[in-house]
Specification:
- This protein is of the alpha+beta class and about 50 residues long.
- The protein has one domain.
- About 15% of the residues lie in helices and about 15% in strands.
- The chain is built from one helix and three strands.
- A hairpin with a 5-residue loop joins β1 and β2.
- The chain starts with a helix and ends in a 9-residue tail after the last strand.
- The mean pLDDT is about 85.
């Protein structure tokens, strides 16, 4: 995804809100935008279209 390994490592630490799809910091407990508590880690690899 990213050109550099360090950038890839930082990019994959992001957490995504399941309700509003906002990007959040690694250690966040709730979404910064809507306050929802369900966060998932960002995907490590690209999805392949079928």
């Amino acid at each position: 995804m990213a050109k550099f390994a360090l950038a890839e490592a930082e990019f994959s630490k992001i957490r995504i809100c399941l309700r509003c799809k906002a990007r959040n910091k690694t250690g966040s407990e709730k979404c910064r935008k809507c306050g929802y508590h369900a966060l998932r880690p960002k995907r490590k690899s690209k999805r392949v279209k079928k």
